[in-house]
Amino acid sequence: MAGDAVRSNPKNKSRKKKNKRGGTKKKMTVEQSAAFRSVTEWVFLDSQSPSSSADAAASFMVDDFGVQKSLGRGGQRVVFELHCHSKFSDGFLSPTKLIERAHRNGVKVLALTDHDTLSGIPEALEAARRLNIKIIPGVEISTIFTSSGLDPQTEEPVHILAYYSSCGPTRYEELDKLLSNIREGRFIRARDMVAKLNKLKLPLKWESVARIAGKGVAPGRLHVARAMVEAGYVENLKQAFARYLFDGGPAYSTGSEPSAEETVRLIHDTGGVSVLAHPWALKNPVPIIRGLREAGLNGLEVCRSDGKLSAYSDLADTYGLLKLGGSDFHGRGGNSESELGSVNLPIIALHEFLRVARPIWCKAIKDILQTYADEPSDVNLARITRFGRIRVSKGVSSAGSSEEDLIERCLSSWLTVEERQNAEFKVIQSKFSSVSIQ
Ligand SMILES: [Zn+2]
Ligand SMILES: [Zn+2]
User: Which superkingdom is the protein from (predicted)?
Assistant: First the structure.
């Protein structure tokens, strides 16, 4: 909403100049500059030269849509990639390869959002640390929305993105149970799709689907489609979907997905930010958005590499939702796929995202630390170091650090000094100094 206001602000008399692509460049408005400063402060919290971000603001311009344009004077754009997949679900690249590619594309913040699993996050963090990329632990959850009040009742598969803090979800076991149930359901579903194809006289083998998915990876429709291409039953993935695997298609099968509202509530209760993925793929978006908003949905994907979709942007405004988006990169190759980091989110949208997300994440980190301060068990320590962001081995405190340092390191990349100096953190910190890692 704010981005549009800026765009149409008649008082914006900034000198426009033509850039090479024929668009216009103008200086940031006061609002955009403030947003830019706040976003970069968070992005570069743990980098060596925090003061550089404010200087960088001076070398930035925005286009008509409030999207940053680098002037190419050493200034770096702050690119967020909020939706992508690795081999841990149906992506083609390992988290390491994905991060390396994101780095080449100038991505500074990346949310890895594999389907129904957080298993790729530790590897992503490891790779990201080397390349100075900030990882938002994420997941794309497969759910079903059942519209009430409609006769007959209609069901629609809905994908919901969840974004968590550096320490991951609170009440991790609850989320983990939901995700593992979905993954189990996906195995049953994939087997069912193979059985349906077999009945359609396509003798696809389960083993080839399982091999393509990889060890321990819950197979999805894309894996089935790849097996079909490999076996020569269709020419390409598109054909596999168009002829057999589309929603309601002859070889389509549903899994055992949880209800979308229940999932949104669980994301909220576990310290995450929930965003409805690709609403343009829904048959019935309005009742879904309305229903999920009531359950506590935070945002809507409205931006793609080919631009902002005004219909969904308007819906986000109507329901007071964040306007986000990501490439949904899978690494399939081919021209039709959006590249990692190719979605240009306006600086105001990024600022709004962090404005909503940071207090949620801050509280989640506090809750996770509190659990350990109250009961300093190995299990509770593992909650803090869930994704291996901080390595603590029993008996040897890493780099001779105390637990106070542990908190500092846990928080310094995620919370500002002011946020960390909050009274509640001080209390937790004092509790930490009285316990020691053995
Ligand atoms: Zn999706
Ligand atoms: Zn996706």
Answer: Eukaryota
Question: Does 184-245 carry CATH code 1.10.150.650?
Answer: yes
Helical spans, DSSP H, in 296-346: 310-318
> If you measure from the C-alpha of residue 63 to the centroid of ligand 1, how many angstroms do you get, rounded to a whole number?
29
Nearest CA among 103, 37, 30, 23 for reference residue 69: 23
Ligand nearest to the CA of 327: 2
**How far away, in angstroms, is 79 Cα from ligand 2 center?**
18
Angstrom distance (rounded) from CA 3 to CA 260: 29
What kind and span of H or E run contains 87? none
Ligand lying nearest the CA atom of residue 83: 2
Q: Which of 116-125, 148-157, 424-433 has the highest mean pLDDT?
A: 116-125
Confidence at 434, pLDDT banded by 50, 70, 90: low
pLDDT per position as a tens digit, 309-325: 889 999 999 999 999 99
Instruction: Map tokens 């629609």 to a residue.
Output: 156
What is the distance between the alpha carbons of residues 182 and 135, in angstroms, rounded to a whole number? 24
Ligand 1 mean position, distance from CA 297 (Å): 16
C-alpha distance across the termini of the chain, in Å: 52
Tell me the whole-structure pTM to 2 decimals. Answer: 0.82
Ligand nearest to the CA of 328: 2
Rounded to the nearest angstrom, the distance between the alpha carbon of 327 and the centre of ligand 2 is 8
Average pLDDT score over the chain: 84
Question: Which ligand places an atom closest to the C-alpha of 160?
Answer: 1
- Residues with Cβ within 8 Å of 11's Cβ and at least 6 positions away in sequence, in order, are none
Distance 219 CA to ligand 1 centre (A): 14
For residue 85, give the ligand nearest its CA.
2
Pairing state between β 24-27 and 60-62: antiparallel
Domain locations along the chain: 2-70, 79-171+256-356, 184-245, 357-433
Q: Ligand 2 centroid to 113 CA: how many Å?
A: 7
**What's the rounded Cα separation, in Å, for the pair 110 and 368?**
23
Give CA–CA dist 260/144, Å, rounded: 5
- From the CA of 330, the nearest ligand is 2
| CA 420 to ligand 2 center in whole angstroms | 33
* DSSP symbols for 269-287: HTT-EEEE--GGG-SSHHH
CATH superfamily of domain region 79-171+256-356: Metal-dependent hydrolases (3.20.20.140)
The rounded radius of gyration (Å) of the Cα atoms in the chain is: 23
